[in-house]
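Lab notebook: predicted structure, single chain.

Context: the supervisor wants predicted structures on file for every construct in the current expression panel, including those that have not yet been purified. This is the next one on the list. No modifications to the sequence; it matches the entry in the shared construct table.
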Amino acid sequence: MELDLSSVLLQWAAGGLLGLWVTGRHHLLGVGYGWLLRASFAALALAGIAAGIAADDLGVGATVRDTAASVMVAVVLVALLNSVVRRSEPARIPPALDLIAAIAGFVALLGAAAVLGGPYALSAARLVVGAVFLGFVTDAMLLGHWYLVQPGLTREPLRELVRLAAIAWPIEVALLLVPTGMVSVLNGSIDDGYAGLLGVTWIVSALTTIVLLGVAWKALEEPYYSAVMAATGLLYLAILTAFGTDVLGRALLAA
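Prediction complete. Output recorded below exactly as produced.
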């Protein structure tokens, strides 16, 4: 299974939009939160499409990837425009639009799996679960910042994202261990080029991510408002280690 920029960016966008739907369906957040996430993930998706086109990939997988990714961007832009036009309405826009965009993104990842090669089911599963994992961790960090704008917001939306990211973690790690997987890097069957250092870095990244998510969860149990900011800081670090878990692992297996 290869690693390319397009698949990483599309993973990030699709997972982030799914996280937006998870949070948005509760109708608790201000309209600006949706603007922030839709604009950010639309930009990532556009960059992913551009990277895929620049790579000049051919075949059905590339066509599915680029077409579905374009649909994802189009739906996000429709949702963004609607939320701007209807910003004064209590219902604003149906969260289902964010879900449709995320589904289109995951279809794009199924196409990308064919482009990247390797056993198709394993490749697709790694991309899909990786998208959920990276997206939820990123959204949790962004949502933590939103409490500065909406300080009276209940902590449950943030707890939900942290919980879902923690649930995705063991699946993410397990899929990267499935042969041919990170076990081959750790036992030296696949040379990481640094005498095993990158394999150890992957282990540290994976373990640190779940520890950070656990500490963030515990921080959110504290009654003080500063606990939300502490959890947000921990989630900043978790994004780095989550990328170390997913992207570094895929890079080592592509070597």
